[in-house]
Amino acid sequence: MPVKLQFGAKAVTDYPVEVAVNFGDVKPEPTSLRAVEVKTDGQMVAGPAQLITLPDGKTTVAFIAPGQSAAKSARVFALYYDPAGTAAKPPAEGPALTAKLEGGWATIDSGPARMIVGAQGGHVFEWFVKALDGLEITEPGRGGWAGFCDAGDLDRGAQFELTLEAAGPVLARLKGSAKNGANERTLTCYAGQPLVEVMLAQPVGFYWDYDNIANFAADKGNPGTTLFSDGFKEPVCKSDEQVHVVRGNVTWCAKTRADGLLLANLTPEVAARHMTGPGGGWGGVGIEGSAPVSHFVTFADKITGDPAAVLSAVQQTLDLRNQPQMWMGKVEKR
Known about the structure:
This protein is mainly beta. It has two domains: 2-92 and 323-328, Sandwich (Immunoglobulin-like); 98-303, Beta-galactosidase, Chain A, domain 5 (Distorted Sandwich). Helices cover 5% and strands 47% of the residues.
């Protein structure tokens, strides 16, 4: 089944693709799915693909268009699969993600990061950076405002019902719904990516990722620098200083330090009022008193190179205004 992607005005990197597929009477064997790129020189490169059954019973297939896709470029993939009941195949080579939901706690391992999501507030309560020997960077605790993806009092006090709608190997999708009027949320993680993408049912002007104050505070051994998408930067304050650095009309804020640790909050489509704090209860990275936003991305990893370039690539890739056009062909039998 051929899939053509025509990319938009901005380049994207490791673009996550999800296409609706009607398999008709010949259902696929999930382990057999492969996304095979047909390059312009005729070379064919296979990668993982994932079958996802949606709540309404329809199906999609997810895969990653690896590497950079240049602005205005086109790429062609073919989805290969065997009929259901065929002997299982070993996993395709490429980044892989695992996810499980047990007792109201979801564990997602995207490769560079392992995250623990809890039912209270739907927060990412723990985030382990594997490139830093498994450093856990969130504010310690599994309740209240601790952790990442906090949207304020109503949501943080709510007990969400978590549903794992997709569990890898390409992506994990975790839906959180609550009965007390809290804001429904959907968290998505991608194989090989140190980030979580959050969609809220209703936009908000308050949203914070609370990290451990030991990560970046000036007096805690790894003094950090705060930076914003408009190029502004300054040192992170001391742990006993209640200082917010505030910038309006920006699409991301971040904190970084000399060993490469980078923590960022992005609002890909919205120029918002972003803020950084030293960590702990005074906040890590987020928005407050901002124009309303419903689409957030939290990024955390040890990186090499320019943090602004890394975050600009993430923003462009996940910007919903920059999605490629897609064309699908008919199913053909080999």
